[in-house]
Amino acid sequence: MDVPPVIDPATIKSLRTLNTGDNDDFLREIVALFGADLKVRLGELEQSVARGDRATLERSAHSIKGSAANLGAGLLRAEAEAVEAHSRRSGLSGIAPLIDALKTEAARALTVLEEILAAPPPRS
Question: pTM score, two decimals?
């Protein structure tokens, strides 16, 4: 079975077509917003577990899931979905390993996005 990429190249290509010829400025802006929001949402996950606040945890995981999908971070989307589903199904008990996996995948996604932005944009 093929392992999907951390970031789907087709999604990045599609995002780049929204503002062609801008030297990836639009993509940089989207990635910066994603990174800032991701940091907030990961903090909310940690705080939610500490407070026993399932509703906020589920909203935060759901938000990460949507943002990750928009940037082609399918593995991160899947980890966020797993956190959200576990909370709905079983509550917060045993959720820490899932959050750890989500945080690991978030770091991988951000690293790959930074690598994409560090490379020269493809010529149109």
Answer: 0.93
Specify the amino acid at residue 103.
K
Architecture of domain 9-118: Up-down Bundle (1.20)
* pLDDT, one tens digit for every residue, the chain (124 residues): 677 899 999 999 999 999 888 999 999 999 999 999 999 999 999 999 999 999 999 999 999 999 999 999 999 999 999 999 999 999 999 999 999 999 999 999 999 999 999 998 887 5
Q: Is 11 exposed, middle or buried (0-12, 13-18, 19+ CB in 10 A)?
A: middle
Q: What's the rounded Cα separation, in Å, for the pair 117 and 20?
A: 15
Question: Cα 50 to the chain's mean position, in Å?
Answer: 22
Domain boundaries, the chain: 9-118
Task: Please state the separation of Cα 37 from the chain's center in Å.
Answer: 9
